[in-house]
Amino acid sequence: MILEPGNGGGGESGGGLTEYIVHHLTHNVKQTALGPFHVDSWVIALALGMLASLWLWGQARKATSGVPGKMQAFVEILVEFVDGQVRDAFHGDRGFIAPLALTIFVWVVFMNTMDLIPLDLPSTLITAAAGQETAHHTFLRMVPTADVNTTFALSVTVLFLIIFYSIKAKGFGGFAKEQFTAPFHANGTFAKIILAPFNFFLNMVELLSKPVSLGMRLFGNMYAGELIFMLIAGLFMSWLTFLPGVFINAGWAIFHILIILLQAFIFMVLTVVYLAMAQEHH
Which is catalytic among the residues 7, 28, 217, 238? Predict the structure, then answer.
């Protein structure tokens, strides 16, 4: 939906601010046998993942040993930066972890950057192609990381990797034993049996808190940033306040670039740190 200058306001109807924000916060949902499926988040995240992979692959194919071009130099700096972060946190074989960290960082940056696209651009394109009525009933959220389903899908994948690296480093028996014998240790058999449920509970809380914190941190920051863009667009969409709204939106967008990069960096670093912790013995 497009809120034209002069139609702003806080009313519940007639294109008011509340309806404007609710419309832009609604996902394009398809009902499936497993429950509601957010088509927009999945399609955009998949397209951006393929675009990021194609970009990195293309730069690797065009790389030369001579004086690099600007784009090759940028990619080399990016790769060296990510590899340095992995080297500092992960002291095992980085053959898989470094490419994983690079993939996470670039993909999350691509998804976060969708928040800088003008809020009503999709609605404008849909209106031009199919008309105002179709645009009004078409829901499309452009920021996949502002959808908790996307961020939790990423963090649950990290959880499976944490379990995999724990079992790889300690063996299945060692991993299972650690869940019942740490952090509280005991010498006697009876004491070990008494402490086992408490140890298991604390270890499960620690294990599950990692994907929850990863997913919620990224989602919360990107959702808040998206909501602020909507509030600015809705509150300043009148002929008298349109120009100040443009400057305020531009200022927030410039500041939001830092959030976009910082959240991708935090997600990448925490993933590497969690995997490094997983392969350490108690």
Answer: 217
Which residue out of 41, 112, 221, 249 is catalytically annotated?
Answer: 221
Return the pLDDT at 99.
94
Q: How many domains does the chain have?
A: 1
Question: In this model, does residue 234 exceed pLDDT 80?
Answer: no
Range of the domain at 212: 23-278
Quick check: is 87 catalytic?
no
Chain segment 163-182, per-residue pLDDT in tens = 999 999 899 999 999 899 88
In a domain, 214, yes or no: yes
- pTM score: 0.86
Q: In terms of C-beta density within 10 A (0-12 exposed, 13-18 middle, 19 or more buried), how is residue 192 classed?
A: middle
Known catalytic residue: 221? yes
Catalytic residue, from 53, 87, 209, 213: name it: 213
Is residue 6 domain-resident?
Answer: no
Please give the backbone phi and psi of residue 185, each rounded to the nearest 5 degrees, phi first. Answer: -105, 150
Query: Any catalytic annotation for residue 213?
Result: yes
Residue carrying the six token digits 């209106």: 127
Q: Is 14 contained in some domain? A: no
Asked, for residue 10, whether it belongs to a domain, the answer is: no
